[in-house]
Amino acid sequence: MPEDRWVLLRRVDSYDPAKMGEVVREGFELLGRAPQGRVLIKPNVVFANRNYSQHAFTCPELVGVTADRVREFPGVADLVIGESGAFAIPTRLSFKESGFYEMGQRHGVPVVDFNEDRYRKVDLRKGKYHKTLLCPRLIHDADFKIWMPKLKFHICCEITNALKLNIGSLLHKERMLFHDDRLNDKIVDVLEIGYPDLVITDAVTIGHGFESCAKPFHLGLIMISNDPIASDVVAAQILGYRPERVHHLRIASERGYGSIDPASVKVLGDVGIEELAQKTSGIVSEFQDMQKLDTRIRFYEGIGPNTGQICYGGCMAAVKGCLGTIDARRPGSLKNAKPGAIVTGIYEGDVDAGDGPCLLIGDCTEVRGSIRAKTVKRVKGCPIGAVKLTGVLPSVFGMPSPLFDLRDVPLVVANTIEKVIQKVKHRAF
User: Are residues 201 and 243 in the same domain?
Assistant: First the structure.
């Protein structure tokens, strides 16, 4: 961790390659960072779909011009772009839909799905829940790591920036482990293998709503930092949060990764945090608060059995992810959904679904009052995944399911097969 933690804030009104390239070069120079050896660039490509998810990922051309700048350093021996996208969706499909493969060809840099490549088993010194991790080879072997998040509001972790980006360091086989009320601790666990040397944040257009199908908001900013904690401290303030309110950021500080006091971060550039925070103050990220959704479905959020708090990273995240995807794919689906109720966790009061269904989400969900509903159905799992829930919830409430979209299904199947083929090749040879 650097002694002096800097964040550079630069106005960038559009995704103009020349302007972005200038800012990135300035960031390397001002922050004193010189890539060398094997360099890994990790963008945020959680999910992409050309029809309804066009603002959830880091701008490919920003990543491309960053790769160009990296090559200007004489000590660089190798350069690669790597990422692991949303669980159960082939990352290579999101690479294709977002334009990352095309960008990689233009700039002459390989783009790799971590799930298809080799990995190393790593013991963690600071891990609370993860004591070992299957670390992607490209992360493990990198001499210099550049994280390139897309700045977004998050449905259960307040913000997505440098620390949250580390969930994409996990292979799919480990991604859902502790993805429940322990999610914020999990994010910090992964920081041990994914502590970047430089953070370049795409905040030209930021995302709100459901982060995997984010709605765009023009902020006009590129943010560059020599420390991920410092980057998140500033990002939190820009999005209207006190740093200590961002749970994973507070946990990272408690584990010794650095102060989250804004006074400990040195900020330079041509725009201030206050001005940027004023711009974002009017954004309503409705999926952060289920009660603000325009729908006839009623939500009853109970606490987890072991923690005494709502399990935002588990069943609640799955519900939000499922509904967010449905409404992005078919706008108006939530508003036109059949009336009913969705319950998560242990709910102490009564549940009123009217004449509609009541859906209990997850193994631990329990209503300790009375239930008024036409039918009561449970979806089992702990934690339950959004993909599994998407197969049930739409039919219960009369909404179209993205799982049966005639355009998307063949793409998912074809890219899943290709993923398996490439995994065999990489690990065999």
Answer: yes
